[in-house]
Amino acid sequence: MKNENPIGLFDSGIGGTSIWKEVHSLLPNENTIYLADSINAPYGLKTKEEIIALSCKNTELLLELNCKIIIVACNTATTNAIKELRAKYDVPFIGIEPAIKPAALQSKTQTIGILATKGTLNSELFHQSVANHPDVKIIEQIGHGLVQLIENGDIDSPEMEELLKSYLNPMIEKNIDYLVLGCSHYPYLIPQIKKIIPSNVKIIDSGEAVAKQTKKILEQNNLLNNSNEKSSQWFYSNSEPEVLKSILNHQEDVIFKNF
User: pLDDT band at residue 233, thresholds of 50, 70 and 90?
Assistant: First the structure.
């Protein structure tokens, strides 16, 4: 495996770009390949077997493109498939799961909210994380419809505002002081969420932690790219890439391809 080989990332669409941005910010010398499986979004409504099959398919494409490490930039795919991926493929995997631990440890009200997909909230890995914090009340809410609206570019729509209010207001009434975003799509909703929740409620997502873990694993495996050449950033999508392009509109030297 060459140090110049790219970091691979995949998600059920554009949401994992929130993870990519953190990775690229921390590791600007690294080449990256991002795979947006938008045709199959959202993963959160699929069975565990379907999620594993799609995750294997995405992994194999990234391995064909010589990726040296793979970030599963999707909470649902991580919580349902990463165990199988690590057993099947000889490449380091970085997962992304809801940041329950930091929220639970820092909560003053001992009540935190988590907004996530059905697939994540129903997963064994998620239930294990919850069980580790028996003294904290965790308010779970499935974000029905949020991923589809984000994929359609309707982040600022009245429908999005109404959905978010219906999901967040019951959490606010139960006195949460931390809101955990359990889907890599949801950081794009932070401006809308901040209009609804009180200022004392802190929002936590996993992007920065994933970037730091990626750097750590690359260092441990002597795989950091020390080249002085300008890095390349490739984005593959299997649907119309217009929303993907609009979300990355401030990024330079980004190359888009269909697969």
Answer: very high
